[in-house]
Amino acid sequence: MMTLGLSLTCLQCGDMYTVATPEAVCKSCGGILEYKLTGNEKPRFNGPITFWKYKPVLPKMTRTVSLGEGGTPLQKAGRLAESLGVNNLWLKNETRNPTNSFKDRSAALIISDAFSRGYDNIICATNGNHGASISAYAARVDLNCNLIVPKAVDLGKLAQMMIYDAKIVEAGNTIEEAIERARKMESEMGWYQATTELNPLATEGLKTISYELVEQNGVPDWIIIAMGSGATLHAVWKGFNEMQQLGIIDHKPHLIGVQAKGCSPITQAFLDGTEKPVKTGKGDTEASAIRVSEPIYGELALQALKDSNGLAVSISDEDMIQAGKEIARYEGIFAEPASAAPVACIKTNEVKEVIGKDDNVVCLVTSSGLKTDDILSSLTKHKKAPRLGSRLATKERILRIISEEPTHGYAIWKNLGSEMTRGAVYQHLNDLENRGLISSTTSGKRKLLEITERGRRVIEALEDLQVLL
Ligand SMILES: [Zn+2]
Fold first, then answer.
1. Which residues pair with 74 in a beta bridge?
2. Segments making up each domain of the chain, as ranges
3. pLDDT in tens, 288-323
């Protein structure tokens, strides 16, 4: 029996490293560096499920920084399963982490390491969730948190970074440009590198998801994961490989990776049968969390998909947004579009063909929809459309037309289209005038209609009410 340990190893040439900070790339060959589990002693995980119970399989830290990450619920999704035509669907609800995303697992390890090594400053490129996480954990131990973000970052995530007092610099349009800048800052300033793509501890943090899944409900048949850089899917696969190495499990799940149609370099490579991600331009998707056109972990993700006898698919933004609504309506979880992608892909023919009706399927719900301003604004806009009973809706529509500018009955009838008679429109106008919501002045043969103060207050009240409905 050999004691458990982890050593930073190059995946390409096998060189082993002992370094002052966990570097991401091998100095001799440029390959990706990763922690490799050594020894065969079966670890003991004691107590309830929390992130730090998996300490025996994580790199050693002299100090730990925690906000209560991990130990997230695995929720059986009965109503959603029924709508999708499968019997055993589970949602691993990572929105329940301290900053509402799975990145808290990586941030806990990375900040613990920076703190253990006595750094004062960290540098981190991020397109959202990771930056929100890192800045929260950095705040807890008074580390100066320097973040580099691309231009289009979700407002909610930016707000988190700001409230946790990070210094934020905007650089370039893509995450790739931000990463390049973070690399430079690291070497120029000697700051701790906390970028998820540049610090192998990120993978170690995320692999705990697999350990938790096995403890919660055994090995699933399928795990579906959204892919941006490919790091999450790779990390989950690493967790399962380790558990098999340690004799905790005797088989592994199949993995399904899902990307946005407008940005799918990994899925494209999978379909083409190539080993490296396919260049597909700058990436065109509203799901910013998976808008990565040059996925650093793409090759490893492809390898994991192949090894697990799984598959890769891509879906449209519309399907993600629709799936997000269904997860919320059926299961009470508010997921961001990228996090809804795994559920959305169950509807595709490719996935339907391979998943058996009684298979255990886990979808990884990585992050909360409350952070994404696009979703929030589209939901609230939607609510402002008339949704009450049709009689009231017609009066409301008429009232709104008149509130824009004083107008005539004929113009209102035209404006409403030919869906009702002119007589019906005049009946509504009479009702509105009798209730004091509009007033009229006669000039020549025509009546000019104007909204009253009372009419304006009614419109305001309707808007307030509809936000609640
Ligand atoms: Zn190497």
1. 92
2. 74-98+201-371, 385-468
3. 878 888 899 999 999 999 999 999 999 999 999 999
Mean pLDDT of 76-94: 97
Residue 180 Cα to ligand 1 middle (Å): 21
Considering only CA atoms, which of 74, 132, 81, 80 is closest in space to residue 370? 132
Contact indicator for 1, 40 with CB cutoff of 8 Å: yes
Distance 50 CA to ligand 1 centre (A): 34
Ligand 1 center from residue 32 Cα (angstroms)? 7
Find the helix or strand (DSSP H, E) in which 37 lies: strand 33-38
Fold observed for domain 74-98+201-371? Rossmann fold (3.40.50)
CA of 34 to the centre of ligand 1 (A): 11
Question: From ligand 1's centre to the CA of 28, what distance in Å?
Answer: 5
Is the per-residue pLDDT at 385 higher than 50?
A: no
CATH (one of 3.40.1550.10, 1.25.40.10, 3.30.200.20, 1.10.10.10) for 385-468: 1.10.10.10
| Ligand 1 geometric centre to CA of 8 (Å) | 11
Distance 304 CA to ligand 1 centre (A): 20
- Residue 279: burial class (beta carbons within 10 Å; 0-12, 13-18, 19+): exposed
- How far apart are the CA of 47 and the centre of ligand 1, in A? 38
